[in-house]
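Page 47, continued from p. 46.
Same chain as before, 1010 aa.
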Amino acid sequence: MAAAAALEAAAPTGALWGLVQDFVMGQQEGPAGQVAADVKSGSYTVLQVVEALGSSLDNPEPRTRARGIQLLSQVLLQCHPLLLEKEVVHLILFYENRLKDHHLVIPSVLQGLRALSLYVSLPSGLAVSVLKAIFQEVHVQSLPQVDRHTVYNIITNFMQTREEELKGLGADFTFGFIQVMDGEKDPRNLLVAFRIVHDLISRDYSLGPFVEELFEVTSCYFPIDFTPPPNDPHGIQREDLILSLRAVLASTPRFAEFLLPLLIEKVDSEILSAKLDSLQTLNACCAVYGQKELKDFLPSLWASIRREVFQTASERVEAEGLAALHSLTACLSRSVLRADAEDLLDSFLSNILQDCRHHLCEPDMKLVWPSAKLLQAAAGASTRACDHITSNVLPLLLEQFHKHSQSNQRRTILEMILGFLKVQPKWSYEDKDERPLSSFKDQLCSLVFMALTDPSSQLQLVGIRTLTVLGTQPDLLSSVDLELAVGHLYRLSFLEQDSQSCRVAALEASGTLATLFPGAFSSHLVPKLAEELHKEESNLVREDWYTKCSRHLLCLQALSAVSTHPSIVKETLPLLLQHLWQLNKGNVVAGASEVIAICQSLNQMAEKCQQDPDCCWYFHDTAVPCLLALAVQASIPEQEPSFIRKVLLEDGVLTAMASVIGTATTHLSPELAAQSVTRIVPLFLDGNTSFLPENSFSSRFQPFQDGSLGQRRLVALLMAFVCSLPRNVEIPQLNRLMRELLSLSCCYSCPFSATAAAKCFAGLLNKHPAGQQLDEFLQLAMDTVEASLSPGPSRSQAFTLLLWVTKALVLRYHPLSSCLTNRLMGLLSDPELGPTAADGFSLLMSDCTDVLTRAGHAEVRIMFRQRFFTDNVPALVQGFHAAPQDVKPNYLKGLSHVLNRLPKPVLLPELPTLLSLLLEALSCPDSVVQLSTLSCLQPLLLEAPQVMSLHIDTLVTKFLNLSSSPSMLLPYKPQVIRALARPLDDKKRLVRKEAVSARGEWFLLGSPGS
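Result:
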């Protein structure tokens, strides 16, 4: 019995000894993992592993000792949490002793120490002991990269867990690390080493007398010139090293006396990257430096920055120089001074003014802008700097503006003034009289108004921008100034086409200032715009029609631009709606373009109202019933319908109205949206017009119950409303509404109404929660589609319904979407619907603007395009290969639409496998397919030239074929030139002029560059 027990106990030990021998003597790597797994499972203890290694650890052959220690270290790396404290003590003593061993053994010893440095309950004093041993016994920089990395990891681990013990070493720890790091070249190790240095400084380890040595051992890498090798598996970028080193250099003011001369030297060098890195590092240093550190170097720093901004050809260097000057000024501004101390900020700013101020008097010279930028960068750093520079510069610039009479010079000076004004809002002043601009406000306003009346549109443009900035400054514009400003903006809003940029700027300024001064714009601008609209109504017949239409359009744009405040919206919205009613009553002659222009202004106004819930509801509650009433009235059958009523039912007008209704609905709260839906849905289902203004209609409104074609067209407005509602708003009579929409969607007598109904049905499907009712709606839709897709008049409308329902399901990842997509693919082979089905893939992959949008609360998954590509492109490719020759273009067109809408990062890896198809698509006669395919190939040519080079012959041939088109006009050139000879002798000068111009164009036809 005793013998059996002994055999049983010896069996595991024997197995362990066998694994050890296989690793140490047999040079096999697998046993190490097996031993570690057995220790973790409890089959062996670490002590048993050490005993099994036995003679291997003391073997006279260094390679054998190294293999034995390597096995033990690998086990410890995986099993260190299982160690007992006394085992850790003995192991550390063992490993420390082996640091004196042969150089072949050292890497395995370091791995073991790294494992032990991870032990959570390391006894006190051992961390210090290990590091002292490493510093004393190991010449780290003679080791391979991976072993040096191990040493850095050991130090990092101890700094994270034994900080107080290491600090007890004092400056010896810092000196030891300096020896470890000195001479390091590998970027992987440098990232870790820089992090250790940063922690030494930021965690307040003692640097003792080794501040300069620590600086030298890190600054020798500045500036970083590392370039990663191609296909670097480690992924270390130059920027990683730059930022890591910068964090070290800028971490302590104690480096300032050594670092600042180095930065000045590198800024003055000829190497662009060194200049940028130095200026960015200086910028970072200013966050931790004070006046004491900067004092001795300020003249040299200013000279270097000034030279770079004045002379550099690089915009990046200029920007970094200005940022560094800003940071220097901010650093000098925030330092706390003793009463008897010198104020370095004042002298520093005086130097800047002395070197830059006189250049501001030379608006035509090249140093005027660099000087202005330097002064503005310093002024933007602090309140004191802003006051000092503004009080010195603004009087000079105001004087220069009046001194120079040319518009381009005045524009330059005003742009400089604008730059100084823009830095003012950063600083707050309790007393308005303390504000540096207070004493200049009258001169500034006068100067701006002079610019706004100047003939130069460029000077006017700067004047408008300056006026806007003045308006944002507290108490700078008096009521009189505001009235004048509004008058100028009104005038500028009606500038001719050649002053488009000024007019647009004036509209933007009106919107910005109206938010700040709604009373002034309500009193002085809105009445003028209302008068302009009324003048339009009374005088249109007597004056030039085109001029009046143009002013009409500009007036509408001004009304929408100024509607940025709720109080103004309550004046401008009724004004626009009243104008619409005047059009409807026939008091004003108008066409579709005028109505669309009004709707566009309303839409812009609705967008501005979205930020204010109360204003949003006011707009919706006022505008939507009015638009619906106008449309319903226009749709009521009459014996002799008026021209304007026909206009209101045109596709473009209804689409513009729908856009307004959608925009006015998307930002409603669920409670208010629910209130609105209980009125609008019954309007379309039951003809309930009680909530509409002027609702005495001659007959009932029944768009779904055998209503007239005009009434059916209004379903587009219902679509805009219900498809913009929040998802949690319950729609009354939903079942009935869905059936009515489904029925109308296959109505062939009015494609516009059918498409609107299909989109509305799809929009509601997309938002409907999963469940039995959704399944019923989908089954109903499928039955309708299949019944109507058979040959007949409704076939085209049934396809449209299928397309929109498919999109609604694709966007929300509904399981049925794959079935519908397959049905759509099947139609690519259809002789009648094939080309249309191919174009349908563009719709499936595109973002819509009216329905199924995120803004309209539709359920749109982020990766729906990628998923659609993965699920369907293989079937498209397979279908292409199996399709007859006359059908192949449809598959190519569908595929090109899918690929063209796919995000480029997803597309690039997939394109090489589809390249043969894309090359074939270039031969397709359809120009849409050609353009879409070229859009797919362009990124591949740039990103994967090695793949494209295999097809270079085919590509060049096909590109050349596409680069020329058949001559259509050239054969007629001689005939036209002969025929145009006769009008050259016409008795009317205008005819002769046009004949000369036309004949000249035909002479040039076909010549190079024509």
